[in-house]
Predict the 3D structure of the following.
Amino acid sequence: MRRSRRCAGCRVTACRAPECDVPVTSPRSIGPGNFWYWFGGIWLAVGLPFLLLGAFFAWHEITLESRLALDGKQAQGTVLVKSWGQGSDSRHRSLHVQYRFTTAAGRTVRSEATVSMAAWEALREREQVRVTYFADWPRMHRIDGQAVQWVMPAVFCGAGAMLALLGGFVMAKTISTARFARRVREDGFPVDAVVIEVVPTGYMLQRVRQWVVRYRYRDHAGIEHDGRSPTMPKEKAERWHAGERVTVHFDPLRPGRSAWTVDR
């Protein structure tokens, strides 16, 4: 195989050796060999921040009342408007109160809170409501009867947990499959297998339909098992044909599991 470097006055010599037919890709590019690592890693990377944010919001809601009891200041606010709307559960209403209060430093804060049914019925517009707030951050406060807000923590935790579990499962499955294939290549039993068919899969990688080679083999006890190759582009999969004999390796402890160890 000859190589040439492009430079002024130099001729570029094409490589015609068979091994030059292998596409050269960056180690960071997505290919059939690392697609599921990328897939699982991306979902895991997206899910974990959502899960952490949801946990932080939940901690904030759970501990806010106790922290206000220790460090909070109290003020008398004025109820401006009472209203209600459809809650997340169609059987219950969401009760809201708009109010304003003035801090000891003279800062006026206007806000809205969701309250319990008992508090909503007890409050009257233009009448007072007690507010507990942080002196250095008045926007962080609660009024008497205010309901704990679980919607945002639940949404973030739910979405984050789902995405993280999906990504973690795919990553764990991919790592386990790779370790199994490596172990079978090193310690498994080689056996002649017959190619059953070469078929397309249901997914595409970089807009290229992926294919697999399905094969059948007999273990040391004479029992037949089916296996399949990793996914590959069509032009590579077509190097094998139905009825062709290939050599694969199977796990002697679990003969039904095998690894595609053929390469051309």
